[in-house]
Amino acid sequence: METKRNLSGTEKFGYSLGAVAKDMVYMLSASYVLYYFQDIMGTNAFAMGVILLAARIFDAFNDPIMGVIVAKTKTRMGKFRPWLLIGTITNAAVLYAMFACPPDLTPSGLVAYAAVTYILWGVTYTMMDIPFWSMIPAFTRGGKEREDLTTLAKSCSGVGSALVSIFTVMAVQFLGRRFGDGLDVERVGFKYFALLVAVIFIVFIIITVATIKEKSTVQMKTSSVKEMFASLIHNDQAMAIVVTIVMIDIAMYITSNLVIYFFKYDLGGSGWYGDYTLFNTVAGASQILAMMLLYPLLRRAMKISNTNIFYTGIGMSVIGYVILLILAMTGSKTLAIFLIPGVLIMAASGVNNVLITIFLANTVDYGEIKNGSRDESVIFSMQTFVVKLSSGIAAFVASVTLGVLNLSNAAVTTADQTLDFAAGVSAGQKMGLRMIMTLIPIAVLAFAFIWFKTRYKLNDEKVEELAVEVAKLHGEEVKEERAFGLRRKI
To answer: Three-class SS string for 61-84?
Structure first.
């Protein structure tokens, strides 16, 4: 029998560092691989769209396979930490290779290089990502300790994503000028920045592995793709939420893929990368503050239902996109004004990220009452699946957009970056970028709103009724906590 002990500060610190590093790597790939290969290296935009979509779909189906492999692993280090190390080291190497593409490749060689490195990156990232999150039960006790660590790790993941979102473009400019020949600043800058992130990744995960001690008896639950789809077919509320997640994520990922082109080729200016960095900083801070402060304010202080908060978030996003389009159409170049739609869109994203998790949790209780089966692990494993699916679809849309608009390296840069990239872009190209970056997300969000409103039935009152029914089913009592629509079994 294992002795129960409190989770140490060292273990929390080590695991948190790993969360920061892994999401630094993920964000670098998710946000900049299209820009790097299509805009900097000149890879065909349509080919990049196919590569990114196919790779993400393959990766989404690959997750359950990796889960089975990890579950069957038995070593002295446990079943999770060996794969965490192997996946991290190989993924770091592939990350560097992906952003160190040889500049003299032929067009077909560029496509092949992008395809191979990106697919390998996805496979190796899955090798460490699955065991990283699955190992939490291996060194924590259930209940509050496990929930607190998960919350801390998710917050640190957000920090890692934010660091890359904020500093990448500025760091690329600095490193490119420091180590480049003055004419290839971004290509060289990305190469060395990827190397820096890869080194941080390896060091931080080694600290994670060194500070975490696995329990030898922990079992890992895995869910197949077949089980996921079966759960959706039999749980109409889970289907309602999963489709909603896909739509919301597609809207957000289309914007995140294209916004760097908007700053570089539409707003322009010799210091476009500084404006882009400030925009990301303010928008990213808005997303985090919305999760930490705005949602609790709306829910606890103002007593607004979760569904109405969700509708508010959709409305904020749409208003943000409309303002962004109007500002772009009027030819405004003032960064401060563009921060307004950035704050609205990202704050709404933060609130809805919280709500999506709550809504998914509600569908677990619903499924247990309706079908007599509590498919908790299966339903929550869908989050990773749909994020990868939606990011692939969004990347495909963004790539096709860039191909149709022929938007790539529109101006020739100089050593001191004095030229305005926007000067080489036609009014038609700018108009197309503005409309696709705003109108398609608005249309997708409108569909998400209609789908959710007509199909999701688990309002606050229904959720409380389900909590009572589930408690009776398990022979338990329930204490309702109406402030957040939560319930606690006692």
So the answer is: HHHHHHHHHHHCCCCCCCCCHHHH
